Amino acid sequence: MSSPLLLLVFAPLLALAVGTALLAAVLAWTGARARPAGTADAAAAAARRHQLTTGVLALVGGLVVAAAAASLAPTALLSVTGVPGLVAALAPYGAALVLLAVHAAGELTWPRPRGAVRSAVLVHRSLRDLTGARAWLLAGTSAVTVALLVAFGATAADDGRMVANHLTAAEIAAGISGLRGPYPGWPYGGPALVALGLVLLSTLAVLHLVARRAAVGGADREVDHALRLASVRRVLGGVQLLVGAALTGYAVVGGISLYGAGWQGAALTCLGVAVVSLVVSFGALLSSLRPVRA
User: Fold this and answer.
1) What's 40's DSSP letter?
2) Do residues 153 and 160 lie in contact, with contact meaning Cβ atoms separated by under 8 Å?
3) Domain residue ranges of the chain, discontinuous segments joined by +
4) How many CB atoms lie within 10 A of CB 111?
5) CA angle at residue 235 from 29 to 7, to 5 degrees?
6) Using one digit for the tens of pLDDT, what is the confidence trace for 16-27?
């Protein structure tokens, strides 16, 4: 993938993501300051502060990694990967893994009950109850990404980086040919599919940490559930943002090349997927930042 096109595609995405991160910090801070009835004790307040710090650090850390990878893509690591633009193509997934690592660290350091007498809420916690529709949204986005990358790989030229021009029968008979690129075929799609799989497995592992973490000391069932639900939403919201950004990038790059090659129908489909993915993913992140009331 050429450097100008990479900058054209990923720079606006990263700028929008940074703006969203700042908004996320403001909304999360506002939510942390709001203390619904039943959550005013010191243990619940400490848990909310820990949750806020983890969420902001995870999102900002992920975006920093994505920005660094995109800026290095045109020059650095080319000799290692052998595929121009591969680092940028995988940047959203690398950012997602960083985000998940920070969330995992936050769960492992979750404030434990203190004092001579400790109490905990004993209740079965189902991931299905905690994740809700957000898990299905992430699964759907991932499925569309897989389908799109497989389609790109199947339609790419022999080198996997170009797509053949749409030609009439007369042009083919006359021996006319041509290729358009950059195009995200298997040199990009293969590593991207592996990276997406790692992100999904890591997401599941972090969600299990949330479901099984210690309850806040002295908190009632509703407060503990609200804290746990907020953590799940922020994990899924951040991952959805980055997986959706990856899908948007692939669809835009592939769509532009398809349009230039004369495959207008396929190109418009790709660009439609890109717009929907971007809007839905940012919307999912913003909705995940709303305070969860006990």
Assistant:
1) -
2) yes
3) 3-113+126-288
4) 19
5) 90
6) 555 655 555 555
Q: Are 89 and 192 in contact (CB under 8 A)?
A: yes
- Inter-residue contact 125 to 222 (CB < 8 Å): no
The larger pLDDT score, comparing residue 118 to residue 23, is at: 23
pLDDT at 238 over 50: yes
The Cα 144–Cα 149 span in angstroms is 9
Burial of 177 (0-12, 13-18, 19+ CB in 10 A): exposed
Under a CB-based contact definition with an 8 Å cutoff, are residues 134 and 240 in contact?
yes
CA gap 262, 176 in Å, rounded: 14
Whether 242 shows a pLDDT value over 50: the answer reads yes
The residue assigned the tokens 């951040």 is 238
Can you tell me whether residue 280 is helix, strand or coil? helix
pTM: 0.80
Per-residue model confidence as pLDDT tens digits over 45-62: 777 777 777 877 887 778
Per-residue tokens: 149: 């990358």
How far is CA 1 from each of CA 7, 78, 83, 196, 202, rounded to the nearest angstrom?
10, 11, 8, 20, 28
